[in-house]
Structures are given as structure tokens and as C-alpha cells.
Write a structure and sequence with these properties.
There is one protein chain. This protein is an alpha+beta fold. It has two domains: 2-76, 3-Layer(aba) Sandwich (Glutaredoxin); 88-193, Glutathione S-transferase Yfyf (Class Pi), Chain A, domain 2 (Up-down Bundle), CATH 1.20.1050.10. The protein contains nine helices and four strands. It has helices at 12-22, 35-38, 41-46, 65-76, 88-118, 124-145, 159-174, 181-191, 196-200; strands spanning 2-6, 26-30, 54-57, 60-63. The chain has a four-stranded mixed beta sheet with strand order 2-1-3-4, with helices on one face. Strand 1 (2-6), helix 1 and strand 2 (26-30) form a beta-alpha-beta unit. The radius of gyration is 17 Å and the shape is globular. The structure holds glutathione (GSH). The site of glutathione has 11 residues, from helix 4 and helix 5.
């Protein structure tokens, strides 16, 4: 059984969403998100930096939500939710998938860390700088969607939309900004998919 070690509202939702979309069975294992638990040798064995999520499938253990998404699709997806390997379409799919975590989610995660570590002494100018980096990413996505395409890679929903949707979800909480009409429509389209409910609850 594929197990997703998860805390509601966090990146594990990407792996859950993919399983829901392709109807692959999975089990959610709740994780104590306290700093203390995540620093224990028990959890560090699961994820060496103490973060969530973690996925196991039999003897396999994987951290990094993007790696989980790609593993689940490659192993169980039968070609669903991703373009064929080695195609231009796959390169663009990978571009947005990596962008979602490596570029867009990065300043957002730093806002959370900065506030957690510095509490009342958090520097608002540092937070504003990270928010402006996140807004650049929102603009990049809005530009891509400006031609009215329904999904990031064109007419077909794929896992890059799942990767990006989680980052948008985070951005709406940590760095809110106005969306263009096409981006607003995109968000409504992806977040109204039936699989979004179980993933985000
Ligand atoms: N790149 C990692 C990021 C994991 C990550 O930052 N997870 C957050 C929750 S969504 C976390 O555990 N934060 C606690 C911390 O950084 O101490 C992934 O995609 O899995």
C-alpha cells in the first residue's frame, strides 16, 4: 500500500491529489508537525531535514513532493497526467513542475520559516521582499495563461497543474495579490476538480 505521511494543508496534498486523479489506492499517515517531533531521530530517519511529506510504497521511501508525484505517475499512471518522455511537451511540463517548487514555493516557505523563527521580531521588509518574489511567479503564470488556455500546458490538465496549484494555494495565504481574469478562472478550474477536495482537506 502506498502511504503518504502528511499534515493537512501541506505539500503531501500533491501526492494525494495525483492518487485521487488516477484512482490509485493510498493511505494517509498523520504526522505530528511539532518542531520537537520533526527533530526526533525517528522522523529524521524518514526525512533527513525533518520536513513533511514522506511517501512509502513497500520498501521504497521517498521525500520531496515533486518526486512522489512523478514516481506515482510513472509507476501507476499508465500515461495519465503527463506528456510522453523526451517530447517538447514533457520539457514544458517539467519546467512548470520544477518552477512550482524550486522557484515559486521557495520565497513562500521562507516567509513561514522567518515568522516561525523570529516571531514578534520578524522583519516586515524581509517578508515584503519574499512576497514580491512570489508575486513575480504569479505574474509568470498569469502571462502563460493570458492567451486563454485552460491549463498551463494547453488544453489538457496534467500534474504540472497540481504542482502549481499547491503553490498558488500557499501564495493565497502568505502573499495575497490580485489575479488576472484568466488566472482567476484557472484557479477556479483546477480547485473545482473532484480530487482537490480530498487533497486539501
Ligand atoms: N521541497 C520539499 C519541501 C518540504 C517542506 O518545506 N515541507 C514543509 C511543509 S509543506 C515543512 O515541512 N516545513 C517545516 C520546516 O521547513 O521546518 C517538498 O516539496 O517536499
Amino acid at each position: 500500500m502506498l502511504r503518504i505521511y502528511h499534515v493537512p494543508g501541506t505539500r503531501g496534498m500533491r501526492a494525494i491529489w495525483v492518487c485521487e486523479e488516477i484512482s490509485h489506492p493510498y493511505e494517509i499517515v498523520p504526522v505530528d508537525f511539532s518542531v520537537e517531533y520533526r527533530a526526533t531521530p525517528e522522523w529524521r530517519k524518514m526525512n533527513p531535514t525533518g520536513k513533511v511529506p514522506v511517501m512509502t510504497d513497500g520498501d521504497l521511501k521517498v521525500f520531496e513532493s515533486g518526486a512522489m508525484v512523478h514516481y506515482i505517475l510513472d509507476r501507476y499512471g499508465n500515461g495519465q497526467l503527463q506528456p510522453a518522455p523526451g517530447t517538447d511537451a514533457q520539457a514544458i511540463f517539467l519546467q512548470w513542475s520544477w518552477f512550482a517548487e524550486a522557484t515559486f514555493a521557495r520565497p513562500l516557505g521562507e516567509i513561514v520559516n522567518h515568522r516561525r523563527v523570529f516571531g514578534d521580531n520578524a522583519r516586515e521588509d524581509a517578508i515584503a521582499e519574499m512576497q514580491s518574489r512570489a508575486h513575480l511567479c504569479v505574474d509568470a503564470i498569469a502571462q502563460e495563461l493570458a492567451d486563454g488556455r485552460p491549463y498551463l500546458c494547453g488544453d489538457t490538465f496534467n500534474a504540472s497543474d497540481i504542482m502549481i496549484a499547491y503553490s498558488l494555494h500557499l501564495q493565497q495565504r502568505l502573499a495575497p495579490t490580485d489575479y488576472t481574469a484568466p488566472l482567476h478562472a484557472y484557479w477556479d478550474r483546477v480547485s473545482s476538480r473532484p480530487a482537490f477536495g480530498p487533497a486539501s482537506s
